[in-house]
Amino acid sequence: MTDGQLQQIRGGLIVSCQARGDDPLRNPAIIAALSMSAVQGGAVGLRLEGLDDIRVVRSKVDVPVVGLWKVDLDSDVYITPTVWHARQVAETGASIVAVDGTARPRPDGEPLVRSIEAIHAAGALAMADVSTLEEGEAAEALGADVVSTTLSGYTPDSPQRDEPDLALVAALTEHLSVPVIAEGRYRTPAQAAQAIEARAWAVVVGTAITAPGWITRQFTRELDGVAKAAAPNPRPQQAGRKCAAGPSR
Ligand SMILES: CC(=O)N[C@H](C=O)[C@@H](O)[C@H](O)[C@H](O)COP(=O)(O)O
After folding, report:
1. For 191-243, what is each residue's pLDDT tens digit?
2. Rounded CA gap, 201 and 198, in Å?
3. Would you state the pLDDT for residue 235?
4. What does this protein do (predicted)?
5. Domain ranges of the chain
């Protein structure tokens, strides 16, 4: 990652293309198609999970990739949780490696700074995924090149809400010198624009763009509510009625 690439993503949209667990989209070829589609739509960067997805997508797109590896090691820290995972993601070709940037104990017992050093040694930039201003300040002091609000809403120290944490974006951009990325629950273009107005360097959007299951549920939930209240069509008494002189097709 060069300063030029950091400039390349400035003010833009980074699309997070991730599929995990039993998600039918979990297939590097599908993630690559989603990623290429996002780039066609104007995404300036991609956020990708897992070595296979990073490797395949890297061979197909030119935009900077924020890479991470979600691993469950019986710890609250699951985003690129150890120094070893950070090194693997960097060596797979991510321009920026996202790691858990909170102060919580990490499963390998190493401090955050060791992951940052490993990422730098592999020639990538380190993004600290944080949930509070204090975590962002600490991560910057340890050498993180970029700080993202990814974990706000997902730690006990941060507000639990459905909306994005724009207040944290504003606080981080006021107090930090490194670029601040707005991420987490940005569901509308207007919310993304608000983050840039709060001086975010870029905005990451995942679910609202690349999770058709979630998007579908927004529609079905709304329809379920209306369907209970509205009468069906055709109404039962009209269903058997003959049409007098309608056009025949
Ligand atoms: C908390 C956590 O693990 N966030 C993850 C980080 O990579 C992803 O699951 C999110 O999709 C990503 O942050 C984008 O956010 P949203 O999908 O809300 O636009």
Report:
1. 999 999 999 999 999 999 999 999 999 999 999 989 878 866 776 665 555 54
2. 9
3. 64
4. Converts N-acetylmannosamine-6-phosphate (ManNAc-6-P) to N-acetylglucosamine-6-phosphate (GlcNAc-6-P).
5. 3-221
Given a cut of 90, whether residue 4 has pLDDT beyond it is no
Residue from 13, 15, 17, 18 whose mutation best tests the ligand 1 pocket (most atoms within 8 A of CB): 18
Give the position, in ligand 1's atom list, of the atom nearest the Cα of 20.
9
**Quick one: pLDDT at residue 230?**
82
| CATH class for the region spanning 3-221 | alpha beta
Per the confidence metrics, is the pTM higher than 0.95? no
186 lines ligand 1 (CB under 6 A): yes
* Single-letter code of the amino acid located at 118: A
CB 95 within 8 A of CB 5: yes
Please tell me whether the interface predicted TM-score (ipTM) of this complex is above 0.90. yes
Query: CA-based Rg of the chain, rounded to a whole angstrom?
Result: 22
Cα–Cα distances in angstroms (integers) from residue 18 to residues 14, 30, 126, 141, 208, in the given order: 12, 10, 19, 30, 12
Any idea which residue has 């993503």 for tokens? 9
Place of tokens 């724009």: 166
Please say whether the beta carbons of 80 and 108 come within 8 A.
no
Tokens of 82: 């150890």
Q: Which residue has the CA at smallest separation from atom 6 of ligand 1? A: 150
The string of pLDDT tens digits covering residues 22-48 is 999 999 999 999 999 999 999 999 999
Q: Are 106 and 75 in contact (CB under 8 A)?
A: yes
Cβ proximity of 178 and 141 under 8 Å? no
CA–CA separation, 247 and 92 (whole Å): 63
